[in-house]
Amino acid sequence: MEVQVRPLCPELRKKAELELNETPKKLEDGIRHLKEWIKKQPHLIARTEDQWLAAFVRGCKHSLERAKEKMDLYYSLRNISPDLFAFRPRDPRFRELMKSGAVLVLPKLARPEDPRVVLVKPSLYDPNKITMSEFFSFCHIIQQIMYLEDDNFLVNGAINIVDLEGITTTHFLQMTPTQIKKLIIAGQDASPLRLKTLHYINSLPVFESIFNFAVKLLNEKHRKKIFVHSRDMTVLYEHIPKETLPVEYGGNGGTAEEITDYWMKKIDEYESWLDDDMKYGTDETKRPGNPKTPERMFGVQGSFRKLDVD
After folding, report:
1. What is the DSSP string of 268-279?
2. Cα three-residue angle 273-186-122, rounded to 5 degrees
3. How far apart, in whole angstroms, are the C-alpha atoms of residue 201 and residue 250?
4. Domains of the chain (ranges plus CATH)?
5. What span, in angstroms and rounded, lies between the C-alpha atoms of 174 and 309?
6. Terminal alpha carbon distance of the chain
7. d(CA 85, CA 140)
8. What average pLDDT does this structure show over 246-272?
9. pLDDT digit string (tens) for 84-108?
């Protein structure tokens, strides 16, 4: 059966060849290989659409063994940590969170071969209404749609900006060591996302305790991609073209309201797909060898309750 994957534009096709070692045949063969592998896994219940599998193949630069590891862990987390996936668009609070502009996928690129920029501002959501797990679940749903639709995101990777301005003690207290470890495993080890850089802006002294703990859990490759900036926005312009940023950050890449309106409609388009997606995961009782358990994956205890935000 012919593999159905959206063709890349010329600039992205060239970038995929250079950075991902991609050829059309290699991509088709990789997708077919993943489909056959999924069929043989007694514990794995995974999506097998060509465009979906292409995200894992490209995200692992066509290393099929790495793609299989990521996919297995990606679906295992559905069972090991269901709290990370339970917050769904049918919850009215989901739409409130979307409207808040706490997560903006910036639509404008300076060049076709530039990474996609995602801007996160946690202070725009109410931590008394939304938990850290729910916020991750929200971000994950946006990311799923990007896996299916955003070729720039898949081929060029992503630059993430986290704006800490206005963040409160309540936000920080949701970041327990166990929660941070879950999020790092989900983002670093289970996701096909190719992170180019991560920028924290408007950093606070209190952030250092959490940051220092989290960095220890990252692999060396990801540690080198993290930058922490204080309140000088001009530093950010050295890393990200100004025209990419939204109006609210001194750029001309659209307003937060325009971007959130687009994503409100996009989430509605995917409503049935997202409902259907909940049936995928793993049955750990059928896994060959030792089942994956929360204790084995996240064995970290404690909290950051002594933190104070100035």
Report:
1. HHTHHHHHHHTT
2. 85
3. 14
4. 87-269 (3.40.525.10)
5. 14
6. 60
7. 8
8. 95
9. 999 999 999 999 999 999 999 999 9
